[in-house]
From TrEMBL:
PROSITE patterns in the record: CBS
Keywords annotated in UniProt: CBS domain
Keyword flag ATP-binding: no
Organism: Metabacillus arenae
InterPro entries to which the protein is assigned, alphabetical: CBS_dom (IPR000644), CBS_dom_sf (IPR046342), Diverse_CBS-Domain (IPR051257), DRTGG (IPR010766), HotDog_dom_sf (IPR029069), Ser_kin/Pase_Hpr-like_N_sf (IPR028979), Thioestr_dom (IPR006683), WH-like_DNA-bd_sf (IPR036388)
SMART domains in UniProt: CBS
Protein name (record): CBS domain-containing protein
Domain CBS: 195-254, 256-314
Top-rank taxon: Bacteria
């Protein structure tokens, strides 16, 4: 039987998109305390069922698919531009497809404005009205208001009309930055994207006997199972190693590993890979904030995801991408000389004009990663990085980064890295890495 918390989440999920949600109303409808309702609403927000906007409230939204992250809802636009909703609140859940800057004559503006668009314009009431009639939402810049007739039209058409104190250029920049950030998020694969759901996962109860483990092992072909209680909360993990020496009539709770390592759905696959390597485990239970089992991931799942990530086209540049894009050494040169060449650009420096500590760390790590991958053909997790010294390196300086393998095994490696400028060492570091072999 579902807990009250789960019942509230399911209730919120069943509400129509666009409906306003309040803690008091949920508590009344579900006959629970306001504290319980609040916690459930916050989890629903984490799951993407609802969105909370200042001065607007919490509304039910359509949950985004990962491939649609580059599209924003009007509710998110309100939050981004610190806007005030003048009308059309019931349409805040809708997704915008295109931004139109209204810096032209009205007739020309309307040629570019259509359904699903967001028209960014100043104090031009006719433009507000025509945009709404064309099926577009309106964002008024400069802190201006609009006519009551336009607000009524927005309410009737369920298309938001929003006012912000920022100017048009600033608003467009803020929205584009938000979309850009979403594109970067799209590239980062999370555990929730690859897990096997709990309803498709074989699990055991603490009161089950070791005999049940043998039956499940025979039926599924697997030897590692999560152990959960009647509330679906994780209690332990049971594997073939755990049952050695126990009689078949022994309860699972006597043989299982208690307090197992777990992750949540929002954990990145890269972090999950680190955990699995460091802890030496093959499977990880995925739980929610209340330690309830949501699913399982295996080392094979993680490896496939990491390989998929490496094949994905780059959609948005991160700071690390901007830094490592300065590498100019070809793969052939790297194999011959075991060296990367990089120019220190102004973006890579601190306020003194010398290479920043963080950028130096990124360059050293990336050079070591690329070189060791080329040697071992596997995935790498940096466990520890020690910088012995770093001399000031001015902007527009060309540096050579030379990683050297000191020690390497099947699961472990030690790399020494020298950084030179005109043949003189300006930095030195050492990395300890864990290796994940390709399946």
């Amino acid at each position: 039987m579902a807990t009250k918390h789960e019942q509230i989440i399911n209730h919120i999920d069943s509400l129509p998109v666009g409906e306003k949600i309040s803690v008091r109303q949920i508590a009344k409808d579900m006959n629970v305390s306001e504290g319980t309702a609040y916690r459930a609403i916050k989890e629903a927000e984490n799951k993407g069922y609802v969105s909370t906007i200042e001065r607007v409230g919490t509304i039910r939204i359509e949950r985004k698919n990962k491939e649609n992250f580059e599209k924003l809802t009007y509710a998110e636009v309100v939050s981004i531009v610190d806007g005030q909703v003048l009308g059309g609140r019931t349409g805040l859940h809708k997704t915008l497809n295109k931004i139109v800057i209204g810096a032209m004559k009205l007739e020309a503006m309307m040629r570019y404005t259509g359904a699903g668009n967001l028209l960014i314009v100043g104090n031009r009431t006719n433009a507000h009205r025509y945009a709404l009639e064309a099926g577009a939402a309106v964002l008024i810049t400069g802190g201006f208001d609009t006519d009551e007739t336009v607000k009524k039209l927005a309410n009737d058409l369920e298309l938001p009309i929003i006012s912000t104190s920022y100017d048009t250029f600033t608003v467009a920049t803020m929205i584009n930055r938000a979309i850009y950030d979403q594109l970067i998020k799209k590239e980062i694969v999370l555990v929730e994207d690859i897990l096997t759901p709990a309803d498709k996962t074989v699990s055991l109860r603490p009161s089950d006997t070791v005999e049940i483990w043998y039956e499940k092992n025979f039926e599924s072909g697997h030897g590692r199972f999560p152990v959960i209680d009647h509330n679906n909360k994780i209690q332990g993990m049971i594997t073939s190693k755990d049952i050695v020496g126990f009689d078949r009539s022994t309860p699972i709770e006597k043989a299982m590993t208690k307090n197992p390592v777990t992750v949540i759905g929002k954990t990145s696959v890269a972090s999950a890979a680190q955990i699995m390597v460091w802890e030496g485990i093959e499977v990880l239970p995925v739980v929610d904030q209340q330690a309830r089992l949501e699913g399982m991931i295996s080392r094979q799942d993680v490896l496939k995801a990491l390989q998929m990530i490496s094949k994905q086209p780059q959609v948005g540049e991160r700071l690390d991408d901007i830094v490592t894009n300065q590498f100019v050494a070809s793969e052939e040169e790297m194999r011959k000389e075991n060296s990367f060449r990089c120019e220190v650009t102004p973006q890579m420096t601190n306020h003194l004009g010398t290479i920043s500590y963080g950028v130096f760390t990124t360059l050293v790590t990336e050079a070591a990663n690329r070189y060791l991958r080329s040697q071992k053909k596997g995935e790498i997790v940096v466990e520890n990085l020690t910088i012995f010294f770093l001399k000031p390196v001015q902007m527009e300086t060309v540096i050579d980064i030379r990683p050297k393998i000191l020690e390497v095994g099947r699961k472990f490696g030690k790399i020494d890295v020298d950084v030179l400028n005109d043949g003189v060492i300006v930095g030195k570091a050492m990395l300890m890495v864990q290796l994940i072999e390709r399946s």
